[in-house]
Records
---
Amino acid sequence: MKCPTCGCEKFYVKDDDDEYEIYEFTTLGKNVVFDKALDSQEIPKITNEIHTFCNKCAWNGKFNTLTK
Ligand SMILES: [Zn+2]
């Protein structure tokens, strides 16, 4: 998956309860890969609808609008 604006393959999502808490991930084919340092108990489930932010530019939108 790539950012539709800059082509970056790194993204993050924000915690529903705390917008300063972010979870970075990249994608490998269809798989979402989070940083190993993150606590897997706290990682949000990535759905097609989840609000996703590009790590590099200002793009953000639904996960399923990323460039495949
Ligand atoms: Zn971008």
---
Amino acid sequence: MTTTPPPLSASGCPMLHGAAFAAHPDAVYKQLRTQGAAGWAEIAPRVHALVVTDHRAAVTLLNDTATYSKDARRWDALTQGQVPADSPVLGMMAWRPSVLYTDGDDHARLRWAMDDCIARISPHRLRELTRRSALTLIARVITDGRADLMADFADLVPMLVFADLLGCPPEKTDQMVRACQDLISAGPEAAQGAADFAGLLFELIQFRRTQPGQDLTSWMINHAAQLTDDEALNQLFCVTGAGLIPTAAATAWTLHLLLRDDEYAGNLAAGTLTVRRALSKALWEHAPMANFSVHFARYDTSLRGAHIPGHVPVLISHAAANTDPALPGGRSYDSRAHLAWSAGPHRCPAISQATTIVQTAVETILDQLWDMTLADERATPLLRHGPFHQCPQTMPITFRPKSRARISATALAGGTP
Ligand code: HEM
């Protein structure tokens, strides 16, 4: 916890980006709370948004579709050219024809396709795919005695899983993983990564039109909602954009809790229940999608005392709402009242799939590297820069080096999908 408050932007707003936010996000949420249920923040250089930090206000807004829209074409500052064209927030906030940016009947149609496709993922296949991906990654570091849980494991498991779920041919997987790595980098290579990834999805759609398989791409393009190619591409882009970093972050936070917190560390042998409870606590305390669920009021309005002008972005701080001091104390982490999955019609459609990936990845690495310890004892690791995700930059671990042979034996014994 810092004693000096984080610096304000030139416009006098708390900054939801930059090094000070990455080091002390809670101090910035505290600054925001002084403005009421929603406060102005700078989310990138020269880009401002209202951010809701009050749990009750967040739930009200997320369910009030008559007042609030998800359609980013309502963003006045953007349509009037006041947002820098190369702003790093545009990759996630600019309008696309997908579930994330639509309302009412348009959203219902796209969400119908999304829900049906996600529901077709077999839980057994997903578990096996995640286990096999996790083992492949552990095999790369197991003889070293050290690794970075982020770069070597948590970031890559969902990428390998998604490449397979999307029906990416094996010879293209490396290319897709590289594009995804750039896409989520929040650095200068992000825009190129997004373009490369969209190009790969375009090729994949053409390929699966002639050779359909049991994968998200084939299901999306053949769904009864009859999506155009552009809609299908953006829906698949949305699945990946919405799914990758939060799943990586949830995996990392769960492992961080299990390795650091005495309440869990002594109970690791208790297995699945412990991992599930740790995930639940991680979702309360470190909401992976920290500030998102972007909405635009259709007209000037108010929200629990806060003035909300129409046509400006209003973000929900899932992170700040979950840690709202007004929430009753002593709640159980098993409670589902947290907002890590959001709420209302745009609530995450893949909760059980995300849980399966995180749980399987965590159990697999704990099985293989049972003696791993965190190399950095800090209570809260430094976060990646940017307003949207709450995700550690690195998480170095050490363990006793082991033979790679033990992994191939395990992988073969489990079979592969
Ligand atoms: C722990 C991991 C995850 C967390 C914390 C998470 C969280 C969220 C949140 C907060 C939203 C609301 C976004 C908004 O309204 O702007 C959302 C939406 C969404 N998520 Fe997840 N998510 C996770 C994993 C996944 C995965 C693995 C997938 C895909 C398989 C996925 C697919 C989606 C989609 C498609 C939406 C948009 C839904 C809509 O707008 O109707 N998510 N997620």
---
Amino acid sequence: MHIVYYTTSKTRCRLFICLLIIFLCAAVLFFVCAHSGAARPAAVQSLPLKGKVIVLDPGHGGYDPGVMKNGIEEKEIVLKIAFKLRDYLQAAGARVVMTRESDRDFLDVPAAGPKKQQDMTNRMQIVNAAGPDLFISLHVNAIGSPIWHGAQVFYKTDCTASKEYAEKIQQELRRVLGNTERQIKPGNYYVLNHADSAAVLVECGFLSHPREAQELCEPAYQSKVAWAVYGGILRSFLPEEAAVE
Ligand SMILES: [Zn+2]
């Protein structure tokens, strides 16, 4: 009996120690979970673009290929970049409206009058109906000379907010792509002039520059462009110290 009593007491003691350890672990875990959020920056604490509405307009589409060079069409490249940018923005909590998600235009059926005007008017109706915080039109360039290259952001004239968005996005394009020193410019474009909201137009590069044309066709480079534009948007909406690297 003495042996049995000794064994039972020892077992109870072990059980007590086990329960104590479990309790202490749970207490430590609770304390860590309750206090870890306060130490994290805002950017990772929650969805940093939650509540923001951003309209993306992959330029051209359908009957209108945009600029073309060596079989490469602007409308196709900007749509791919727009999809990547959309994914980044949505992951950060933004509500993203795209003017097009396929190779389409915005002509009435049946089309009447000048096609380009009709396309742009209908396109901007979609943009303004969404009531965005920011409207971004994506394009690529092509000119006669093959020497010019680099992404460049244009902003809605006489709009301070648009200029600030443009500056942040251009800074990120310079930093992330590392291949241009281009500066922002006011842009006299239909889509900027007819946007009710802050608006920028991003020329993602030149199809007339052989190396850049090749890069613009590469998914990895398209992702870098989209990431840079996303980074600029994020820095525009967040305090500097909270933006992601
Ligand atoms: Zn264009």
